[in-house]
């Protein structure tokens, strides 16, 4: 399997806080990897480096072989991202917003318009296409953000705690959409969460704690390594049992 994301020995410090310390990880094409970590583990910092928002103090990030620091345009061309903070323009209609983003990616309208309509159908959002963003439920706003992240047909999808604030049904739905996109187009997915139940569906789990990778393997291997029956118990044991790390 070809690596769509390769992160080698990445470190980042904020003053006296070592937010990330020599973090290495890989996501292969078609692979869903859950990045699990309690609050403050360094997930958001890692995503900021993976998306080129900040540069690491040391180490490297490559997307499909393109180095994020030396060749950001090529690296970002393959990347779709949904950030933790909602980023939908509430004053544009859903369709207008999507067309605007397709234009930003330089997609010709002969390509983007049918693609947008097909994705709206797929995501069950066709009836909302003419609505202003502010009229949508939280779950549907997130779905639009996911749809937007898929518009340019990226090979790697980064989801940074994208289900925060959603009700359980919307969380499950969003995860389903991501799993389907992965299956259909062999996209590599890195799904950051502090909710253990969301990691159950991943092929691989990476546990980040206090800025370092504590585990990288299948959910079953994590349970076996910790001698626990459930992923939640294994994760809590590995990370010192922070209560806020429990499943929602
Ligand atoms: N801009 C900043 N300045 C100073 N310290 C920071 C900054 N951003 C993050 N940190 C610190 O770096 C560490 C990692 O934070 P980060 O937000 O990356 O973790 P996280 O896993 O995303 O947590 P959460 O789940 O709470 O969002 C924490 O100790 C945090 O306080």
Automatic annotation (TrEMBL):
GO terms for molecular function: ATP binding; ATP hydrolysis activity. Pfam families: ABC_tran. Residues 5-235 form the ABC transporter domain. InterPro entries: AAA+_ATPase, ABC_transporter-like_ATP-bd, ABC_transporter-like_CS, ABC_transporter_ATP-binding, ABC_transprt_ATP-bd_su_PQQ, P-loop_NTPase. Signal peptide: none annotated. Keywords: ATP-binding, Cell membrane, Membrane, Nodulation, Nucleotide-binding, Transport. Belongs to the ABC transporter superfamily. This is ATP-binding cassette domain-containing protein.
């Amino acid at each position: 399997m070809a690596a769509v994301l390769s992160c080698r020995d990445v470190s980042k410090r904020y003053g006296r806080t070592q937010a990330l310390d020599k973090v290495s990880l890989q996501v292969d094409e078609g692979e869903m990897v859950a990045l699990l970590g309690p609050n403050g583990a360094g997930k958001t910092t890692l995503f900021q480096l993976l998306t080129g928002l900040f540069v690491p103090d040391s180490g490297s990030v490559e997307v499909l072989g393109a180095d994020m620091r030396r060749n950001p345009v090529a690296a970002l061309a393959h990347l779709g991202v949904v950030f933790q903070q909602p980023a939908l323009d509430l004053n544009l209609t859903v369709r207008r917003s999507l067309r605007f983003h397709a234009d930003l990616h330089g997609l010709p309208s002969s390509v983007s318009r049918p693609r947008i309509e097909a994705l709206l159908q797929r995501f069950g959002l066709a009836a909302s296409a003419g609505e202003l963003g502010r009229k949508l439920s939280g779950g549907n706003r997130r779905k639009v953000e996911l749809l937007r992240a898929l518009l340019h047909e990226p090979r790697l999808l980064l989801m940074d705690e994208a289900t925060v604030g959603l009700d359980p049904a919307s969380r499950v739905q969003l995860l389903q959409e991501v799993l389907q996109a992965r299956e259909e187009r062999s996209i590599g997915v890195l799904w950051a969460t502090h909710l253990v139940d969301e990691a159950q569906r991943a092929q691989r789990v990476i546990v980040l704690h206090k800025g370092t990778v504590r585990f990288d393997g299948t959910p079953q291997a994590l349970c076996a390594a910790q001698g626990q029956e459930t992923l939640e118990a294994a994760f809590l044991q590995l990370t010192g049992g922070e209560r806020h790390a429990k499943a929602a």
